[in-house]
């Protein structure tokens, strides 16, 4: 049955980003996401996806959470709560990391920004802001200064091969010289102290832009204007999800959760046992003992679309895993997904079957990313 | 929102066009807008009578999977094969080339239970 959000009564008051009215006025289909009223698409998921892959698009992702960690103990707290080694950061450097829990799972995945040696910013998933905040405060035995600035900050992602050109006229920073996973605080448009970060969740290249809420609508309009000759378009969360999935990036709540370990999720590369952190001993043991399951890319051979919760089977019909994210790949035109499988099925090219509406459809385990631009 | 007056509708956002005991069935303009890009339409193989309200297939958009329900009891006598290679027809022409099945109606009295265009307009709050 079709049940559509817009035909249902809204039971709870949704939070709004500074751009909320703009989205409504510009034809976005809005959905409830992580407690926010967010644009899922403006025109077409597939068109918006291709706009980002081939040109440039702008996303309002102001629902994301930002925490400031300050003071002489800032790094100590970050080293304790995150799995990656934040001591490798320098001023202006960003790091992808995760917050392990003490049960072998993951509280959240996040970006850590080093503004200076005594000031860091953590960027967390909107759906986890409250959980993360409570967790950090509970773990803050060293006495770092913590501040949740999520409600004061807007965040735009300008992504795609033309992102640099689209933005360059708005800043004196040389965007071409910015390396991947670095950031600068600079004047952008007419706004001071904007964080321009060479990061993103699309695999298409581009920037993420953090600023205060007040000038957000104005700057968004300036970016739309400056990007006009590069055919910039607004992009919804629908395309954000298909873009990240084509790259095989994990989504918290689907592919990584409170009960998946970073090792089995393929996040061993951000799990550094060269330092002590929450449950580092447990995770090290888990790694040394060998994994029971592994998150892998699944690409359909038969016609069908894997979806979260679908069983993965071997040739004898035995259930060997489960899909955690799935969609049709707009660039490849086939069903793709991520899922956990028993480790003996983790190698690329292994034949597996996805159970879709009582049919077992052939698929292959593949290396991620699914799409290489 | 396009809601043709000569069609009948269901609460599941399907439309029905009646011609001489046979009916064409598809999903409404509202439904395709809400779903977004339709990427897969699968009609179950079934030559028997299917009761009103039973599932006759599945429609998949980029992000969602939805069942399709028989708006009226009957036998499926034709399937729109074009949708196999061009599911986007459901978005482009929901009341025309995006039709899904042709049904031989077995309980014509059920036709009276369907919603008219005004009622459907009201249902979707238009």
Order of strands across the biggest sheet of chain A?
10-11-12-9-3-13
Q: What characterizes the major β-sheet of chain A?
A: 6 strands, mixed
Q: Count of DSSP E strands of chain B?
A: 8
User: Rg of chain A from C-alpha positions?
Assistant: 21 Å
CATH topology name of the largest domain in chain A: Gyrase A, domain 2
**Terminal Cα separation of chain A, in Å?**
37 Å
CA-based shape of chain B: globular
Kindly summarize this structure in a few lines.
The complex is a heterodimer of chains A (373) and B (126). With 373 residues, chain A is an alpha+beta fold.
3D structure, described in words:
The complex is a heterodimer of chains A (373) and B (126). Chain A is an alpha+beta fold and 373 residues long. Chain A has three domains: 14-61 and 152-246, Probable tRNA modification gtpase trme, domain 1 (Gyrase A, domain 2); 65-144, Alpha-Beta Plaits; 292-366, Beta Barrel (Elongation Factor Tu (Ef-tu), domain 3), CATH 2.40.30.110. Chain A has eight helices and 19 strands. Chain A has helices at residues 20-25, 45-54, 74-81, 129-139, 163-168, 216-226, 237-247, 280-289, and strands spanning 29-33, 36-41, 57-60, 65-70, 93-100, 106-116, 119-124, 145-148, 153-159, 183-188, 191-197, 206-212, 233-234, 293-300, 311-313, 319-328, 335-342, 351-356, 359-366. In chain A, the strands form four sheets. In chain A, strands 10-11-12-9-3-13 form a six-stranded mixed beta sheet. In chain A, strand 16 and strand 17 (335-342) form a beta hairpin. Chain A starts with 19 loop residues before the first helix and ends in a 7-residue tail after the last strand. Chain B is of the alpha+beta class. Chain B has a single domain (8-110), classed as RNA polymerase II/Efflux pump adaptor protein, barrel-sandwich hybrid domain (OB fold (Dihydrolipoamide Acetyltransferase, E2P)). Helix content of chain B is 17%, strand content 34%. The longest helix of chain B has 7 residues, at 29-35. The A-B interface holds A 1-2, 4, 6-7, 29, 40-41, 44-46, 238, 241-242, 303-305, 307, 327-328, 330, 357 and B 12-13, 27, 31, 33-37, 39-40, 42, 58, 60-63, 65-67, 69, 91, 123-125.
């Amino acid at each position: 049955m079709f049940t559509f959000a817009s035909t249902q009564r809204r039971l709870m008051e949704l939070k709004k980003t500074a751009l909320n009215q703009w989205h409504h006025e510009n034809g976005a289909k809005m959905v409830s996401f992580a407690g926010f009223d967010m644009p899922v698409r403006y025109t077409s998921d597939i068109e918006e996806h291709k706009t980002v892959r081939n040109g440039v698009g702008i996303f309002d992702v102001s629902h994301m959470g930002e925490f400031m960690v300050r003071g002489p103990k800032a790094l100590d707290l970050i080293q304790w709560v995150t799995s990656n080694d934040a001591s490798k950061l320098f001023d202006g450097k960003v790091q992808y990391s995760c917050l392990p829990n003490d049960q072998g799972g993951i509280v959240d995945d996040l970006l850590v920004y080093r503004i200076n040696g005594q000031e860091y910013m953590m960027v967390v998933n909107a759906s986890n802001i409250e959980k993360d905040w409570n967790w950090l405060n509970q773990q803050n035995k060293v006495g770092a200064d913590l501040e949740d600035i999520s409600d004061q900050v807007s965040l735009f992602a300008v992504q795609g091969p033309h992102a640099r050109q689209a933005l360059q006229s708005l800043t004196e920073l040389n965007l071409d010289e910015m390396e991947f996973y670095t950031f600068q605080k600079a004047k952008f448009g007419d706004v001071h102290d904007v964080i321009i970060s060479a990061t993103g969740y699309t695999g298409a290249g581009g920037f993420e832009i953090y600023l205060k809420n007040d000038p957000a609508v104005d700057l968004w309009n300036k970016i739309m204007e400056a990007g006009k000759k590069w055919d910039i378009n607004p992009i919804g969360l629908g395309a954000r999800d298909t873009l990240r999935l084509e790259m095989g990036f994990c989504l918290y709540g689907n592919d990584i959760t409170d009960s998946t370990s970073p090792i089995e999720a393929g996040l061993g590369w951000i799990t550094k046992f060269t330092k002590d952190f929450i449950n580092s001993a447990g995770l090290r043991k888990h790694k040394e003992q060998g994994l029971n399951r592994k998150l892998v890319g699944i690409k359909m051979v038969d016609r069908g679309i894997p979806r979260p919760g679908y069983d993965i089977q071997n040739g004898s019909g035995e259930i060997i895993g489960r899909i955690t994210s799935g969609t049709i790949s707009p660039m490849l035109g086939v069903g793709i997904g991520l899922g956990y499988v028993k480790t003996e099925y983790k190698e690329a090219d292994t034949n597996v079957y996805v159970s879709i509406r009582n049919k077992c459809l052939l698929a292959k385990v593949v290396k991620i990313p699914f799409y290489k631009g | 929102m396009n809601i043709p007056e000569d069609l009948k509708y269901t609460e599941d956002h399907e439309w029905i066009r009646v011609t001489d005991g046979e009916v064409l069935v598809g999903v409404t303009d509202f439904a395709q807008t809400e779903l977004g890009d339709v990427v897969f339409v699968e009609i179950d193989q079934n030559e028997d009578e299917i009761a009103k309200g039973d599932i006759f297939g599945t429609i998949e958009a980029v992000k969602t999977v939805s069942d399709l329900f028989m708006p009226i009891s009957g036998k499926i006598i034709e399937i729109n094969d074009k949708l196999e290679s061009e599911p986007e027809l459901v978005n482009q022409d929901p009341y025309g080339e995006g039709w899904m099945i042709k049904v031989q109606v077995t309980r014509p009295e059920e036709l009276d239970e369907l919603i008219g265009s005004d009622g459907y307009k009201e249902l979707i709050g238009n």
